[in-house]
Design brief:
By secondary structure, the protein is of the alpha/beta class. The protein is 50% helix and 16% strand. It has a five-stranded parallel beta sheet with strand order 2-1-3-4-5, with helices on both faces. Helix 3 (40-49) packs parallel to helix 4 (66-74).
Amino acid sequence: MGEKQAGGGVLVVDDEDEILELLEEYLKVRGYRAWTATNGREALERIRTEPIDVILTDMKMPTLGGIELLETVAALPRPMSVVMMTGFGTVETAIQAMKLGAADYVLKPFKLRDIHKALISAHERVLELRRQRFDAGLRYFYEYCNGLTDRVGLNGGR
């Protein structure tokens, strides 16, 4: 198993089959595990069953769009990074996506090197989120074991 496959994988969400096929093939050649979904609802089903770290999603899709998917993913307990892709980019949509927690924003038509840079950044973000959660858990465990807190709970007991 390659280094990129040791963690989770990448989910590509887009309503254009050509984009899904291109990115799935590109990701697999680069050593990533890759899955696809044609809309946000299908993506949520994949997230429930697959070890996904990064989501590359189009903003405008039928059923459930990229912004709604981003909001839903942000509320999940498992850390994931979301990279938004759009052919209808404006400064306002980029700002909205970043405020909601998107790791990056890529305009269509994109260059594969732009996708690659966004993936690297998104994976680093996931690793940092996991490290922060692990550190918080260790800190809470230490405090609990040493009688510094009497609360028993998840997420650092807070």
